């Protein structure tokens, strides 16, 4: 069983490798990859060792090749369909985010309960009535659902979420979901306040040096 | 030197402990804390061991006490002032997010270059002309800046960001910042596409079982 922390770090290595590719850098050492992702060279080698041998070039890795291999480990398929429930500020910022499409995550639908929003579009994706969630998830073969509704709306949505049969949920609502489905969806909670705490620590650390 | 990965996990433990507190749970074992945060009981004990002894109760920790101690480690001060540059969809969703205020991160100002937005408010925070960034950061003692402008706007903002003397930057723009300041700000890049990759892995893993 591969530790979850390793999977999280692989996603960070991949982001770093994509940036290096944009800056036309061809080879990177495990030490530089470690510095860019705030980990250690030993940790980089240990994380990669779970997945077999990586073409090492002298002391480094080919950026393009390593990025492809890590992408294959994390994403078995190239294209994933995503929907967003709650077409408000956060939901529409996610729907428009170019970083999703670049990584193969296509936002194909949004859902809302506000009649003024239903029937309008954000980019190519239409905003549907949230009551149609199970049908549209099935019709458009949606794998992942990002949840960006207000806290008070969550209890009323539980049954719809459970019957939608979506495979994964990215939960931005600051409440635990506790969904009761036989074929449980993978749920990942996102709380950007955590990033603030990490930044506070980094700031205090710099001040002490 | 404490590994960055430990700091990231502390922020995850804290989020979990806050949820447990909301659900009125008083004591938690390292095994349960590990399951809730997708890590191992050994990892929990190892992470906490960097910071001295934690009042263990039999096989567990007091939720309230542990949360307070971790909060003190991450955040030397209780209250931090935050500003947001780019008062668009993402910027306004962050400005309104209750999770920041609950954790002691107060959004005290937003900045934009759109004349129709300058002078309006989101909650209690006013939207200022981005040209006034250095003055307002100084006047309102702003520590952290969240960057939510479009990609093309970044080059034109570099000098303003460098002269603003802010201590930390939460960067949502999918580009590396490379700021040239003597007293370098701590920069943390956020890319929600990484969360999608992690979710893909969790989904494929469930399918294989
Ligand atoms: N986790 C984080 O880091 C983070 C950061 C920012 C915001 N948030 C959270 O994201 C959520 C959205 O924030 P926002 O600023 O975009 O809010 P918003 O009010 O702009 O958007 C909410 C949208 O949900 C829709 N909605 C309400 N009830 C609904 C229902 N039952 N079914 C479908 N749609 C419904 C509304 O019509 C609106 O379009 C909030 O819960 C907020 O706390 C989380
Ligand atoms: N990292 C992530 O996971 C993630 C997710 C979503 C969006 N984003 C990024 O966040 C950014 C904002 O996205 P959005 O959907 O809120 O866009 P948006 O267009 O709704 O908002 C952008 C705001 O920036 C303002 N602006 C433009 N140029 C400016 C300048 N020079 N100075 C100050 N303000 C300026 C605009 O007036 C607008 O209010 C984009 O770069 C997007 O790629 C990142």
Structural commentary:
2 copies of one chain form a homodimer. With 209 residues, the first copy, chain A, is of the alpha/beta class. The first copy, chain A, has 2 domains: 71 residues, Winged helix-like DNA-binding domain superfamily/Winged helix DNA-binding domain (Arc Repressor Mutant, subunit A), CATH 1.10.10; 114 residues, NAD(P)-binding Rossmann-like Domain (Rossmann fold, 3-Layer(aba) Sandwich). Chain A contains 9 helices and 10 strands. Chain A has a 7-stranded mixed beta sheet with strand order 6-7-5-4-8-9-10. In chain A, a hairpin with a 2-residue loop joins strand 2 and strand 3. The two termini of chain A are 39 Å apart. The model of chain A has no long low-confidence stretch (mean pLDDT 93). At the A-B interface, helix 1, helix 4, helix 5, helix 6 and strand 10 of A face helix 1, helix 4, helix 5, helix 6 and strand 10 of B. The complex binds nicotinamide-adenine-dinucleotide (2 copies).
Average pLDDT value of chain A?
93
Low-confidence stretches of chain A: none
Strand count of chain A? 10
| CATH fold assignment of the largest domain in chain A | Rossmann fold
Structural class of chain A, by secondary structure, is alpha/beta
User: Which small molecules are bound?
Assistant: nicotinamide-adenine-dinucleotide
Strand content of chain A: 15-25%
- First-last Cα distance of chain A: 39 Å
Please give the count of helices of chain A: 9
Reported for the largest beta sheet of chain A, the result is: 7 strands, mixed
The first-level CATH class of the largest domain in chain A is given as Alpha Beta
Taking Cα atoms only, what radius of gyration of chain A do you get, to the nearest Å? 20 Å
The domain count of chain A comes to 2
Helix share of residues of chain A? 40-55%
Instruction: Output the strand order for the largest sheet of chain A.
Output: 6-7-5-4-8-9-10
């Amino acid at each position: 069983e591969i530790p979850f922390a390793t999977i999280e770090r692989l996603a960070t290595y991949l982001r770093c490798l994509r940036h290096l590719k944009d800056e036309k850098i061809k080879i990177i050492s495990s030490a530089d990859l470690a510095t860019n992702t705030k980990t250690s060279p030993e940790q980089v080698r240990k994380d990669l060792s779970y997945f077999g041998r990586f073409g090492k070039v002298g002391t480094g890795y080919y950026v393009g090749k390593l990025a492809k291999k890590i992408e294959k480990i994390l994403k078995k398929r190239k294209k994933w369909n995503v929907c967003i429930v709650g077409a408000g500020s956060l939901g529409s910022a996610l729907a428009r985010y170019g970083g999703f499409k670049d990584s193969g995550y296509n936002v194909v639908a949004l859902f809302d309960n506000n009649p003024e929003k239903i029937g309008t579009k954000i980019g190519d994706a239409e905003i549907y009535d949230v009551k149609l969630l199970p049908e549209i998830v099935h019709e458009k073969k949606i794998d992942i659902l990002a949840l960006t509704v207000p806290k008070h709306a969550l209890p009323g949505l539980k049954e719809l979420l459970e019957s939608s049969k979506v495979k994964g949920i990215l939960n931005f609502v600051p409440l635990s979901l506790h969904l009761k489905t036989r074929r449980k969806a993978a749920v990942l909670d996102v709380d950007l306040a955590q990033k603030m705490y990490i930044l506070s620590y980094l700031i205090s650390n710099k001040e002490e040096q």
